Amino acid sequence: MKWSEISIHTTNEAIEPISNILYEAGASGIVIEDPFDLVKEREDQFGEIYQLNPDDYPEEGVIIKAYLPVNSFLGETVEEIKEAINNLIIYNIDIGLNKVSISEVNEEEWATAWKKYYNPVKISEKFTIVPTWEDYTPVNSDELIIELDPGMAFGTGTHPTTVMCIQAIERTVQKGDVVIDVGTGSGVLSIAAAMVGASKVYALDLDEVAVTAARLNVKLNKVHDRVLVSQNNLLDGIEEQPNIIVANILAEVIIRFTEDVYRVLNSGGTFIASGIILQKKQQVKDALIQAGFEIEETMQMEDWIAIIAKKK
After folding, report:
1. CB–CB of 141/207 below 8 Å?
2. Does the pTM exceed 0.85?
């Protein structure tokens, strides 16, 4: 089978919404080329040594590459992708140069080439994200390993927004807690919550592709007895009152459903909100406070923010 590589030169802020657009369009994998990776200083405690080729990266902005099967609908699909990306401007998302190019690759090339972007990465005190094809030996006896196939759905576990969420989950989830993961993607946050002691985790996502991938990853990590993955739009129709709600999604969406989060959470419950670009931090904080939350902690990694808030 032949595949078409669609390459989009955009901004760091637009990575998550554009990636979501691409997966909804049927992309079978995404690669993100961010020049910041070439110079980023990683703490020894959580860091990883990478061998990166500067020629693979743009001088400014980021390049998102996705892979679509070559068929009679390809042209129409590409136009729909372009239109959806342009519509992000409505939500005040900076799409930068928004330069889109198309090229053709063979399946054999894609099947192996994209894997070079993913390596085992220690992201917190306990958690290490390991691609399914890598052999990895835990360094410490209490190390928690999450195995993921990044080719299946959006969410490799190593993006700053996800890293902060997992670090927050590690500190806040207590044994026996009930957790709801809104916009679960690959299921990585739900898996982490189950591994640190949650008795029940509801992993929700509107995207069928994400739901399928999350179920596979949940089984792969042997937490399917505690994690229930289902298709759902945010918290619509949810009656369960959890101890913790985690949402790694767009700031605009967090702002829109903070009142629902407050309503659903148990008294004294915790809301971990991430996916927030730095410029939107205050807007999200204002929405949380207006809904009745107390801000407990604001985390920052690169240009991304995560907020831990408590229901009074």
Report:
1. no
2. no
